[in-house]
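agent: user wants the structure for protein-glutamate methylesterase from Novosphingobium cyanobacteriorum. delegating to structure tool.
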Amino acid sequence: MNDGGITAVAIGASAGAVQALLHILPPLPASLPVPVLIVVHVPADRGNALVSLFEARCDIVVKEAEDKEPAAPGTVYFAPSDYHLLVERDGTLALSADEPVNYSRPAIDVLLESAADAFGGGLVGIVLTGANHDGAEGLRAVAAAGGIAIVQDPASAMSGAMPAAALARCPDARVETLDGITAFLVNLVPA
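agent: tool returned. relaying tokens verbatim.
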């Protein structure tokens, strides 16, 4: 575990997600001491091409989350299309085909709320660009559990609605540019 007591990172994004994540994920080193769990709104009828896109550009391990898989440090886990990604209390990943939340499956709120329950104050929750309000309640849950809540600066987001909604529900969240978010995550690696 790193000095800050951070044990996991959970990120949610929608419209503009690929561009934002192309900024954040490639600089992350393979030695990142925490898992990174990501929900991106992808259409249910389309295969999830995110893993192959990022695998080729990242030093850190990138994979699609599997049900009952322990979340390992130095690994980025993408939610599969048409499944909610949750975290069990023991840090194991879980997939669910429950009803969509905010018209989305996977839903960002589902990931952030379950990760807040599992990791408490050790969680960093990040809401990036997007065109709806998914992630707002989840980020509030992260902050309420003592975790670190970060919102992409709505003015710098391709679609500012989602970060603005998250900021409205979680006004004490840190507001960062993509460069600031990237630097924060890279700094989780012990010197």
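agent: one observation worth passing along. Residues 133 and 162 are 5 Å apart (CA to CA).
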